[in-house]
Design goal:
single chain; 126 residues; mainly alpha; 5 helices
């Protein structure tokens, strides 16, 4: 179980690190024109950059605290935070009629909830 949680957290961290970096470092106008990023037109550039920053911090929070043994309780908290973001992303995708993206967001949501459940419960770092 511990290995499954580490693998899931690592995969999520990679996904959110890449997604967050794209939001932070790609100019808003260019990001909004990219395939699958039409949702960005519904939000301000400032919101998108802030969301990217939060995603990067969440990605770091999924792996760094446990790997260095400092404040490992941050791992499930980061997972809960990212789950909330993915719930919102799924709602936006459904409202925009982007069913494939909504399903992908729900998969990431389930993965984040799995990490949160596992690290708060049976495989906590306590």
């Amino acid at each position: 179980m511990d290995l499954a949680l580490w693998i899931t957290a690592g995969l999520l961290a990679a996904v959110f690190l890449i997604a967050g970096a794209n939001k932070v470092f790609i100019p808003y106008e260019k990001l909004a024109r990219m395939p699958g990023a039409g949702w960005a037109n519904d939000f301000s550039a400032r919101f998108v950059k802030g969301l990217g920053t939060v995603e990067i911090l969440g990605a770091i929070g999924l792996v760094l605290p446990a790997s260095v043994g400092i404040a490992p309780v941050l791992v499930p908290l980061a997972a809960v935070g990212l789950a909330i973001i993915m719930a919102g992303a799924a709602v936006v995708s459904f409202r925009r009629g982007e069913k494939l993206h909504a399903v992908l967001n729900l998969i990431y949501l389930a993965m984040a909830l799995f990490v949160a459940w596992g690290r708060f419960g049976p495989e906590s770092f306590g």
